[in-house]
Structures are given as C-alpha cells and as structure tokens.
Amino acid sequence: MSNTPCELCTAETDVSTYEVPKVGQVAFENAVQICATCRQQIENQEALDPNHWRPLAGSIWSENPAVKVLAWRILKRLSSEHWATDLFDQLYMEDDLLAWAQAGHVDDASDASASSNTRDSNGVALLDGDSVTLIKDLDVKGANFTAKRGTLVKNISLTDDPALISGRVNGAQIFLKTCFLKKAT
Ligand SMILES: [Zn+2]
Known about the structure:
Blueprint: E1 15-19, E2 31-35, H1 36-42, H2 56-59, H3 65-77, H4 82-90, H5 95-103, E3 132-134, E4 138-140, E5 145-147, E6 152-153, E7 157-158, E8 164-169, E9 172-177, E10 181-183
Antiparallel strand pairs: 1-2, 3-6, 3-10, 4-5, 7-8, 8-9
Helix pairs in contact: 3-4, 3-5
C-alpha cells in the first residue's frame, strides 16, 4: 500500500492527519493529510521556507476545504514572494471558507507592524526586538528589585496580551506593562 501524499506539498514521508482548528460555526470538513515539515511550519514552530511551499501551485485546486484554508494562510504569510501573491490571487474562497481562513491567520513578526495591538504609553506600536525605556520606577515582584525610571530594555518580546511585553532587566526576564513604557529610538 502506498503512502498518502501530503495534501499541501505532495511529500510522501511522515504524513499524518492534521485537524485545522474550527472557529465559530465552521461546517466544513477540517481534516487534512500533511507531512511533518508542513505541520511544523503551519504550527509556527519554524519560519516558513518559501521553497517548501511551491507545490501549493497544484494543491490550491484541491476539493478539500481544509487544504484551501491552510493554503490561504500560508500564501498570506508568504506575501513577500511574488509567486505566492500570484497564487493567492488565483485561490478562490467562498465567503464562509474565507472567514474561517482569516480567523486562524497569524501574521509573522516580520510583517506584523500594521496589525500590532501592543502599544507604548504614547500609543506607538511595539514589535518584537524593539527597545523601550521605563517612564516610572517599577517594583519587580518576585525579583526583589526596582527597575528604575529611564532604564533601557532592549530586544523586547511581545506576549499574547497587548498590555504586556517581556524583556530583560537587571539580568532577569520579566513582564512589563506597556502603559509604563516608551519606545526608544
Ligand atoms: Zn507537506
């Protein structure tokens, strides 16, 4: 018996069933057979390798709605690649399928500037890797020190909560409230 090929990239090794998480009232079939490489990149454990996704040129025509949803999200994340935007334009999505695809789409940090909800005390968007300064003294719970006003925190990381970022102060990785921060330039 031959292996089922990956429905996204056609690879025949390490193929297993992946269920695209349903959002709201999704009435579509959500199971798709994908390989381990596709799975890792879809689950954001690895950055997208554009060349891995070239076979989407064939798979976007799949009858499986889950394949189209995944292809839509991947092509959207690859929007800096011309071939990917061309394919994206060819990808026909019914309205309810499109809503499902959009609901699960996660921007990569590199192109998140337009959609970042994390803002400093002045309403300036903050991104992973930015530097910020503290605008007041902050007692750091659990670490037993006060982070002084004016402290520069480099290379911050965003969190799931737009009101919090994480960064390294006095050698400790801590969470900081964005309302007490100002983006450093
Ligand atoms: Zn694959």
